Amino acid sequence: MSATDWRGRAVTNDDDDLPIDESISRRREARTLLVGLLRPYATAVALLTIVIVLENAARLSVPLLVQRGIDHGIPPIVDGGSARELILIVASLCGVVLVQATSRMFFLRRSGRIGQEVLLELRRRIFRHFQRLDVAFHDRYTSGRVVARSTNDVEAIQLMLQTGFDGLITAILTLLGTSVLLVVLDVKLGLMCLCVFPLLVVLVWWFRTQSAKTYKLVRESAALVIVQFVETMTGIKAVQAYRREPRNQQIFVDVADDYKTINERAFKLLAIFMPAVRLVGNIATGGVLLYGGYRVLHGEMTLGTLTAFLLYLRIFFEPMQEISQFFNTFQSAAAALEKIAGVLAEEPGIQDPERPVQLSKVNGDIKGDIAFRDVNFSYVPDRPVLPDLDLRIPAGQTVALVGTTGAGKTTIAKLIARFYDPTSGAVTLDGVDLRDLAQAQLRRHVVMVTQENFMFEGSVADNIRFGRPDATDAEVRAAAEAVGADRFIDALADGYDTDVAKRGGRLSAGQRQLIAFARAFLADPKVLILDEATSSLDIPSERMVQRALATVLTDRTAVVIAHRLSTVEVADRVLVLEHGRIVEDGPPGELILGDGRYAALHRAWVESLA
C-alpha cells in the first residue's frame, strides 16, 4: 500500500526518480565528500591499515602453528621424547594471540576517535550549510527532511565508519591470504576448494546489486517516517484543533508500514544469501573431509595439514558470511552519504557579491531609503507575483501595506529583507542594490519581525539580546522598558533570567511579541519590517503591543503589513495592493475620506467593532 499525506497525495521522497546523469553526479559528490572528510586523517588511516594487516597476519598464522603442533610437537611426546617443541609452539601461539589482541585494541581506540572526529566535522558542515541556505530552500525542504539528514543519515555513516572500514580490509586480506595458504598447504585440495569461488562471486554480485536498490529504499522510507513524525509534532496544535489525529495516525501507520515492508524485503535477501553461502561452505568442508581424510589414510597428507586446511577453510568462509552485514552497512551509508552530499551541493540562491559595497563609504551615515526599480518577481516561472513594481519609501517613513491574501505584501517584505532576489529589476537601500551588499551588513540594518516570533529555549534576556549577543544587561533592560515589556518581565518568577521554555511556551502571544519588539529595538536597525505582527493577538494583547509600536518605529524606515487596520494607524502612508500592483497610495487620513478600496476596508473594520 502506498502512503498518502494529509491531502490524499502519494508521499514521495525528494530524491525519487532522479535522472541518470544527476544520480551519477550525486554519487560522485558523495565520494568527493567522503574523501574530503578522511583526507586530514590519511596518515592515521594508513597506520590503521598496517595494524589491520598485522592483526590478520597474526590471525592467519594460528592454523600453521596448530599444524606444526600436531605434526611436530605432539609426536615426540607420544614417543616418550621431549615436550620442548610443543612448548615453543604454544608460546608462539600465545605471542601471536597477544599481537592480535593488542592490534585490535589499538585499532578500535584509534579508529573510534577518528570516526567521531569525522562525524563531528560532518555535523558541523551540515548545520553550517543549512544555516547558509536561503529562505527559498527552507520553504520547500521540510523540517523533517532536515532532521533526517542531520541525524538518521549521519548515524548510518557512523555505523559504516565503526565497522565498514575494518570489515572491508579484513575481508579482502582474509580472502586473499587464505586462498594463497590453501594452495600452499596442498595444491590439489586448495584448487578443489577454490573451484567454489566463482559461485561465491556470483552470489556476492547478486546480493550487492539487489541490496543496493533495497537499502536505498530503506533510507528513503526511514526519512519519510521521520518527516511525518516531526511535521505532525510540530503542528500538533493544528492537528488537535481540527481533530486530525485519526487521519494523521493513518498516514504515519501507512508510511511506517511501507518502511516495514521494505525492511522485510532486505531481510529476505539476507535469508537467501547467508544460507546459500553457508551451504557452499559446508559442501566445500564435506568435500575436504572426504578427500583430505582419504589422503591422510594413504599417507599423502599429514593430520596437521588437514586440520590447518579445515581451519583455513572456516576462516575463508567467515568474511563471505559477514559480507552480507557489511553490504547492509555500506549500502545504507552510501545512500545516506548521497543524500547529505546532495544537500551540501545545494547553493544558496542568495549569494554575497565578490566585492561587497560598504554603505557607510558610499553615503556616509546609513539613512534607510528603500526603492523598487522596475521589479518583477515570481516564485514559480511564468506566474508573476509582482509585475513591474516601482516604489520608493523615503528614509524615516512608516508605510503600511494593505491588501487581500496573496496580494504581494509579504513578498515585498521578503525582497526588502533579501530573503529572495527579484527576477528582474532591483531593490535598493540608500541607492545601492541589495545584491551588492554583504548579507551580514544588510541584516544589521534591516530586521523583520514576523507574526510568529520564534523564542529560543533560554532566558528572557537571552532572547532579547538575540540580535546583539554582546548587549549588556543594562541595554537589555532599556530595550524592554522602551517597548513596555519590563512590566510583565519583572512580574515573572525570575525576571529577566526566567527560562521561556521551548518556543516561548511560558509566555503568552502578546508577551512573545513584546520581546520580539524589544529584540528589534535593541538591534536598532535602520529599516524595520513588521509582517502581520499583531494579526494573531487578542484585543488586550494587541493594545499592549500597539503602545510599543510607536517607540519601535521612531527614527527608522518601517514597512508594516497587517490585516488589522488598527495597526495601520501608526503609518505615514498606505499602499493598497492587488495582484502585486499598487492600486492606492497616500496618507491613511486622505484615503479614508475617499471612496477607494482602503476606505471600504476601513469602513468594514469600523463596523466590525460596533
From TrEMBL:
Iron recorded as keyword: no
Membrane topology note: Multi-pass membrane protein
GO cellular component, one term: plasma membrane
One example GO MF annotation: ABC-type oligopeptide transporter activity
Residue stretches spanning the membrane: 33-54, 86-107, 165-183, 189-207, 269-291
Record-annotated ABC transmembrane type-1 domain positions: 46-332
Keywords tagged on the record: ATP-binding, Cell membrane, Membrane, Nucleotide-binding, Transmembrane, Transmembrane helix, Transport
Domain of life: Bacteria
Pfam families: ABC_membrane, ABC_tran
Stretches assigned to the ABC transporter domain: 370-604
Family that this chain belongs to: Belongs to the ABC transporter superfamily. Lipid exporter (TC 3.A.1.106) family.
Name of the molecule in the record: ABC transporter ATP-binding protein
Originating species: Mycolicibacterium hodleri
Taxonomic path: Bacteria, Bacillati, Actinomycetota, Actinomycetes, Mycobacteriales
